[in-house]
Amino acid sequence: MLTALVTGGTSGIGAAFARSLARRGFNLVLVARDEPRLARTARDLTAEHGVHVETITADLAVREDLRRVAQRLEDPDHPVDMLVNNAGFSVKALFTAEDFRQHETGFEVMCAAVSRLSGAAARAMLKRRTGWIVNVSSTSGYVTMGDYSAIKAYTTTMTESLAVELHGTGVHVTALLPGWVRTEFHSRAGITGSSIPDFMWLDADRLVEAALADVARGKVLSVPTLRYKVMATALRHLPRPTVRWLSRQISGIRRREIQA
């Protein structure tokens, strides 16, 4: 049986990946910080799908924890066939904030950890000449809305660069670029999303099914739904002053939502 390791695998998009892969018969290695929730998720997935679920309690902002997850990816006796780098959170702090810890944690979890785990998975997969790496990025990387946009722009570019490096090796790399997805992500960030039209919201399970179909086709960039494909294409081709203007408008709406 194949095995997939999913970071942030107990909620949101990560949990949707875990459910979808379990339905496909993958054994799972779930990584998250909340040990009781990890145990419940593992128990539920095993009961429903009959797969083996291993758990690793880890905070990817802590270098020792990150090292343990990387070691698991490179364990030759227990190979991981697919890595899903999903762990993340919304970085709301301004660049001018005196307390820079949220920025530092965001970089550690969503840049440094994604790079290190992708590299560890790729090294192990190269030896077997097969494997899949999925990095959950965001269409936010195409706009200029604070550190989260910068982080996701990095994730997308890093993934594309790794895909170039691994081209023709049998190891496939995909960046998933969702838009607004109905998960705990926004509520945890204090964002109600009330100003976002209903048609812009995506269902996490449908999103993951579409993403895995793109992974199977060997696509490097997976952008869900036609509406988000059109939006992403437009943002890539608009003049940068226009993108910055749009980003200011959206940022103003988001700030008002948080204040409300």
UniProtKB/TrEMBL annotation:
Give the SUPFAM superfamilies listed for this entry.
NAD(P)-binding Rossmann-fold domains
Question: What's the short name of a Pfam family annotated to this entry?
Answer: adh_short
Q: What does the UniProt keyword field contain?
A: Oxidoreductase
Cross-referenced InterPro entries, in alphabetical order? KR_dom (IPR057326), NAD(P)-bd_dom_sf (IPR036291), SDR_fam (IPR002347), VLCFA-Steroid_DH (IPR051019)
| Ketoreductase domain: residues covered | 2-183
Gene Ontology molecular function, alphabetical: oxidoreductase activity
Family membership, please give it: Belongs to the short-chain dehydrogenases/reductases (SDR) family.
Report what the protein is called.
Answer: SDR family oxidoreductase
Q: State the organism of origin.
A: Kocuria tytonis
